[in-house]
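W.,

You were right to be curious about this one. When I first looked at the sequence I had no strong expectations either way, so I just let the prediction run and decided to look at it fresh. Below is the sequence, 82 residues in total, followed by the output.
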Amino acid sequence: MSSARQWFKSSYSDGEGGNCLEAALDWRTSTYSNSEGGACVQVAPCPTAIHIRDSKLSTDSPQLTVPAAPWAAFVAFAVAQG
């Protein structure tokens, strides 16, 4: 799995460059994605949510954020089906 961190300023930081708190999403590429850079789904797990994006669009990709509990239920269901 490859990973790339995406840093962003906290919404509590001011716009003048001072008192900034930065956080990072640690994006991980799905093991089901191919090695040629296509058909990639990336996830960034956090304690309370899972962030999902299409890596083909890089950092410009729209992101889907799912709360941790529904994501766990989805994964459990997908594993049971597989």
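Here's what jumped out at me. Residues 3-81 form one domain. And, maybe more interesting for your project: The chain has a mean pLDDT of 74.

Coffee later to discuss?

I.
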